Amino acid sequence: xxxxxxxxxxxxxxxxxxxxxxxxxxxxTESNGNxxxxxxxxxxxxxxxxxKKADRATKEGLIESYIHVGGKVGVLLEVxxxxxxVGRNEEFKAFCKDVCLQIAAANPSYVSREExxxxxxxxxxxxxxxxxxxxxxxxxxxxVEGKLEKFYSTVCLLDQPFVKLPEKTVKEMLTExxxxxxxxxxxxxxxxxxxxx
Length: 197
Fold this sequence. Notes:
It contains 8 helices and 5 strands, in the order H-H-H-E-E-H-H-H-H-E-E-H-E. By secondary structure, the protein is an alpha+beta fold. The strands form 2 sheets. The protein has a 3-stranded antiparallel beta sheet with strand order 1-2-5. It starts with 6 loop residues before the first helix and ends with a strand.
């Protein structure tokens, strides 16, 4: 027995996810009216859609800046997209501003895991292993990997919980924007300035 999908259900899901009306209706139909399951379906579809766009060239975009109240912290950020049309889009600009706020608040060192130097990772592994001396080797390996994940979520912008929505990472927010806007978007680089640091 299939449930009747009302316009209100579709509208509510669209408001929660930002996905298109047709995508929301398909997800609700597939989940038999279960909103939480429909959200999961849309998130999976969004991640797959973003992965398809990952190889597209991003030569347009925006340099965004942010100076925190009191003038003691500032951020310069470069976010790239495929077209200048998207670079001028208000939603894209708002996303760039939010990423600046994230950098000012959370103080990451790198954009992604790929940028972390191997020497830093080796040092973190060594520290983590020293903290769990005497445990079985299999447990040590799992604990060290867990501590490395925590390290990544501290120093890598894309792995950090998003300050405005802590239940999502910056990478998940980026994936949602790629899906909604329909273009590849890349956080290219940033510099965070702090008075006296």
